[in-house]
Structures are given as structure tokens and as C-alpha cells.
Amino acid sequence: MKIGITGGSGLIGSHLTEKLAGDLNADILLISRKLLYGNVQDLSEFIKCCEVIIHLSGAPVICRWNSKNKQVLRNSRITTTKNLNSAIALMEIKPKLFISTSAVGIYDNKHTHNEYSKNFSDDFLGELCIDWENAANEIKRQGVRTVIFRLGVVLSDKGGALAKALPVFRYALGGKLGNGSQAFPFIHIKDLINAYSYVILNKEMEGTYNLIAPELITNRDYTKALSSFLNRPAFFHVPALILRVLFGEGANVLLSGQRVVPERLLNAGFQFGFPTLRATLNSFSSHKLSNF
């Protein structure tokens, strides 16, 4: 099986490449940024033998949402997805499966959401996710089985959000963001990559899935758990005002979490290895984390 992956050098992509090459004996084809933004005929020729295409490309959303950065965020998600759609349209034999990324930021912060919720956020991130998913569903209209994963915060002992938080907590400067009451949807990196394998192997699965752990927690819960795990106090907190000064509208990503449940994944029989934050943190070596 040949699998094409965009964004393959990132945290998720590097884990996924190792997983799919090992467990599924897949031949991994890394789709470069240059190809993804370039001529769609060249892109189509490059991916012509892929049975599966996994689209992970996307610039980091935690930034100041000025007009320039907003365009970067849109291009990295929507333009690239549209280019893949155009490239697939040129293929004589189309992929059997297209897996696109999205985010739980599509939802508002007022309700608890399963995949059938239509209570979407009306901020930039919500609109970005809606347009992103619409672009992915154009590939579905070509007859390609399409899965869209809405991701939360990915926790790994090899980088990502956890690595950014650890130096602060290590020096006893950790604390909640804002008042800490915002939801904190998370997933262990191993559960995430296992879900990708699961939908590849289970051919009846298609559509949108919330790819987050079943446990509902807040940023305050996360702060307390990480503090306890590292045996470091977390008395400090970052006021919402400071975050808004630093990131402007982009602070919404940190201050406005979503309460989300992975209903469709659970109904499909997927079993989370790390369904709670405690199980997730306990899977990591405290000694290794303290050395970040």
C-alpha cells in the first residue's frame, strides 16, 4: 500500500509515518510543500499511485491573527486542499481514501458537541475550519472515501503543546490560562495515530470524526494534573488580557476551549488506550519530561 502524506515532517506526520510503515507495511510518500503549492499536474503525477492520501498540512494557529497571518492559515489549509482536489481530478485511478485534518475549533464554547452538532463558532477559526472541511468534501464528490478528523490538543513526550508547557512548569512558573474554566480537549499521540490506522483498515468508516479523548476536562484540570505529575507547584496564571495583548484575536485559541466527545469513533468500536488525562500523563516518563 502506498500512502501519500502532506506535512509528514511535523509531530503528527513523523509519528504517523513510523506507525504506518511498521504496522501496515506501507510505502510512505512524503508530499513536499513545494509540490502542494505548485503545479497541480506535477502534484497529480507525483501521487498517482497512492491508495491513501493523508493531508496534515497547516500553519500553527497560535499566532496574532492579523490579515497577513490569516491568509497564511487559509492558504496552508484551504488552498492546499483545493490543490489536492484538482490533482486527484486528473488521476485516472483515484485514491481509495482521503483523510483530511480539521479542528475542534469549528465548534462554539457554549455547548457539548458530538459530530452531529451544528453549533459552530462564528470566529475566524470556526470559519476557517468550515471552509477547510468544505474543500475536503469536494474530494468526496469525486467518489473518494473521505474522512475528516477534528483534532484537539495533541499530547506527546516528543514535542508539541506539552513540550512548550514543560519548561515553564519545571521552574514552578506554570499555571492556568485566563480563569482556567475553558474546556481542554486533548488526545494522546498514540491514540491519534491508531485512529488513522483504524479508518484505513475499516473501509466502512467515512465522514467526520472528533479525534479527542473521551474525558472532558478544563484548562484548570490540565494545569493541576501536570503540576502534580511533575511535582512542581503551579501558582501562577496568565491573565486573559496578557494573552490578548500578545496574540490579539488569536488568543481565542487559548482562552476559548470546546467541550467535545468522540461519539462516532466510540460507536465504530475504536478503543482509546489513554482515555483520561491521568492515563495520558502516566504513559510518559516524568524523568524524560523534566528534561525538556
TrEMBL record:
Family matches, as InterPro entries: DUF1731 (IPR013549), Epimerase_deHydtase (IPR001509), NAD(P)-bd_dom_sf (IPR036291), SDR39U1 (IPR010099)
Pfam family of the protein (one): DUF1731
Gene3D superfamilies xref list: NAD(P)-binding Rossmann-like Domain (3.40.50.720)
DUF1731 domain span: 238-282
Occurrences of domain NAD-dependent epimerase/dehydratase (ranges): 5-210
Domain of life, per lineage: Bacteria
Listed PANTHER family: EPIMERASE FAMILY PROTEIN SDR39U1 (PTHR11092:SF0), SUGAR NUCLEOTIDE EPIMERASE RELATED (PTHR11092)
Family the entry assigns: Belongs to the NAD(P)-dependent epimerase/dehydratase family. SDR39U1 subfamily.
NCBIfam families per UniProt: yfcH (TIGR01777)
Protein known as: TIGR01777 family protein
